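I'd like us to work through together how a protein chain folds, taking it slowly. To get us started, please write out a protein record for me. Label the sequence line and the structure token line clearly, so we can match residues to local backbone shapes. Once you have written the record down, we can walk along the chain together.
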Amino acid sequence: MSDPVNTLRARAAVPRFRFASVDVKRGSLFALLLLLAAVQTGCVHRRMTIRSVPSGALVKVDGEEIGYTPVSMDFTYYGTREITLTKDGYETQSVMQKVRTPWYQWMPLDAVTDNLLPFEVTNRHEFTYQLQPKVVVPTEELLNRGNMLRSETQIGQ
């Protein structure tokens, strides 16, 4: 005759092994799905386009040359940027340009839009600047101004 205790132990051991195998499969599947979700999540793509009238002006953003207008650049952080436009025959224009944060990038929503969306969000900012023609002062007029300033300073002494 067989021992009833050993028979129960033998029967109990088989289902435990099956459950462990199912748990390993489920855990592997969950890890794989988690990995796929992390790879497939979208993010926010931030892009700034700078234009000038007339076009062809050299653009510097925060002191770094990025190209000639119209020009686009990707950026990471919102805030105020110093944009400088230079073109022969036109006044150099420097602007402190605020790049506004959209509502979906406010805290705590930015954690969702940056990490958990299943698609990419493109955030575009476009800025257009009117360049002013450089005023060329005739040499004679400059000399007259200089002489006038000299005489004013001599009278003041």
Remarks:
- Helices lie at 4-40, 109-115, 139-156.
- The chain has a mean pLDDT of 81.
